[in-house]
Amino acid sequence: MKINKYLVIVVLALPAIFYWEWARQQAESAYSVSSVSMVSAAGKMPSVPKELEFFDSKMKKQSLKDFKGTALLLNFWATWCPPCIEELPSLAALAEKLSKKHGVKTILVSTDENWQVVNSFFKNTPLRKHKGLLKPNQMPFIQFLDPEGRAAREFGTEKYPETYLINAEGLVLKKFIGAQDWESEEVEGWILDALR
């Protein structure tokens, strides 16, 4: 009888162990650095979807058209997304560097349901940056809200975070899928090479 009990326990535990290992591997792959260049079949870079709109902190509609003539790093993220949160400190460091040295603006577009969720996240979540903490009023990003995920879908975003490098002419030069180590020389090199 004891053998049967142990056999049942082992049989029930095996699927859980396999699932746990599979989930662990999925989580690890979500944090790996990856990059996909976006080139259409005709060899031309796609441009930013027309009429792409977000909401600013006062819930007024804003558009990427307002940034015409400026290179952008556009990041779709959410407060409920662990890989998004993981990359925020390094993205902040890169945003600061790109803005000061190269005039590139970094835009964070949250797909959360409202600004209260986003503001609460930044107020209550300590994000490490270099030797200190990122403070909500010192973020080096322009922040917008896409509560229904419409703009993210129009861009072709399927997984959070996804980040697009857009040149001053409005062409998408690079798409980064998943969390990145934005402070790595490799990623910064890809960005600066693409902008040349």
Label this structure with key terms.
196 residues; alpha/beta; Glutaredoxin; five-stranded mixed sheet; 20% strand; globular
Would you write up a description of this structure?
The protein has 196 residues and is an alpha/beta fold. It folds into 2 domains: 1-30; 33-195, Glutaredoxin (3-Layer(aba) Sandwich), CATH 3.40.30.10. Helices cover 39% and strands 20% of the residues. It has helices at residues 2-30, 82-102, 115-124, 150-155, 185-195; strands at 53-55, 61-63, 72-77, 105-110, 127-129, 132-134, 142-145, 162-166, 172-177. The strands form 3 sheets. Strands 7-4-3-8-9 form a 5-stranded mixed sheet, covered by helices on one side. A hairpin with a 5-residue loop joins strand 8 and strand 9 (172-177). The longest helix is centred in the first third of the chain and has 29 residues, at 2-30. The protein is globular and about 75 Å long. The model is unreliable at 22-43 (pLDDT under 50).
